[in-house]
What we know:
It comes from Kribbella jejuensis. By secondary structure, the protein is an alpha+beta fold.
Amino acid sequence: MKVGRRTIELSKTDKVLFPGDGVTKGDLVEYYEAIGPWMVPYLKQRPLSLERYPDGIDGQQLFNQNAPQYFPDWLETADVDRVNGSGHVRHAVVRDTASLVYLANQACVTPHAWLSRADRVRNPDQLIFDLDPPDGFESARRAAFDLRELLDELGLPTLVKTTGGKGLHIHVPLDRTADFDTARTFAREVAGVLTARYPKRYTIEQRKNARRGRLYLDIMRNAYGQTAVPPYAVRARPGAPVATPLDWSELDDVHPDQHTLRTVLDRLDGTGDPWPRLRGRSLTKPWQRLRTINQ
Ligand code: ATP
Ligand code: MN
Ligand code: MN
């Protein structure tokens, strides 16, 4: 198959990867080829970890931090220090649609992306609030609106996406002046204020049994070496759901499994990507505002 300048030898395209849905590896390749123009801008320069299912999503999961040795030379990689400082990890990086197609042919259902880019890998260009509901989707929806209200008070813009899982992710674009520890400290304080505002709704307890029915505001994605599922990635779940950027006006009606490998391209052809391109923000002023709210 030819994608741009690259020729990619596809293998086992008839292999069923999603048994309940009849989605084959060929379907996955086709999806990532078509979504490339929409998805690649969100992946450029980001170290990736690859969640792969050569035998389908009910089979063994492979999870590659390092790009396997046999990957072709043209596939970009990023060498980054290990979290504990001992040695390097050589992550795959997607710079074009051909790279995405290559990974799909490797049965990579979900590429997980860093919150920073390789040229400044210690400074995230986004904050992500990972909203993990204890039960249904309703509490995630409410958390998204409550968090948006607070971040709006701080002067920060927010973007919302479904994860293809049970919850939602809220993104805030950053200007990369803060490192991960600073960004995470900010996110933790924001989550703390929201929890103080609605103590029955939210918790920042990492221990599951201490959450007692409250939605977990997971700010731990905002760390060196951590990932989040990027926009338009497929998830290894029945229905082949896709992590999907939303316009805020869509959140009232959306279902967590609504957008899938089979449907999301039609949506993009119809209305385009709902996320505006926002400039990255500094946390300095929002942090000052947060402290006055806190008092
Ligand atoms: P959901 O909406 O169901 O919570 P999610 O993608 O947010 O879906 P989480 O378990 O909250 O799932 O994890 C958040 C992110 O952290 C993921 O998108 C993924 O990139 C990363 N992550 C979490 N756990 C793992 C893991 N065991 N292996 C690899 N990456 C993980
Ligand atoms: Mn989550
Ligand atoms: Mn989480």
